[in-house]
Amino acid sequence: MTRRLTSTLAALALLGAAASPAAAATLSLTQARATAKKAGADAARQTGGKNPTVTSCKRTSSRRALCKVKLHYSNGASTCVIDVNVGFKSRRSTKLVYTFGKTVCS
User: What architecture is the 26-105 domain classified under in CATH?
Assistant: First the structure.
């Protein structure tokens, strides 16, 4: 009886541990904004932009978000808005990654 109870509890613990990453893998807008800010700083470093600011973020699915990052420039186009797609690296991952989308400059 004790052996069966122990094995049942161990199986439930394994199921709970396997379900935890999936339940925790919902992207919050706060996480998306923080990742988009890092992406904006990276884009500013690469292009010579200044003052990257995240203007908006909206969730496109439970695991992805689309954010807009504004960069200012001292020569050429004065401002550019970059689309930043934020999401998890894989279905099981909790690591956030970003890719750049469209860029609109004025």
Answer: Roll (3.10)
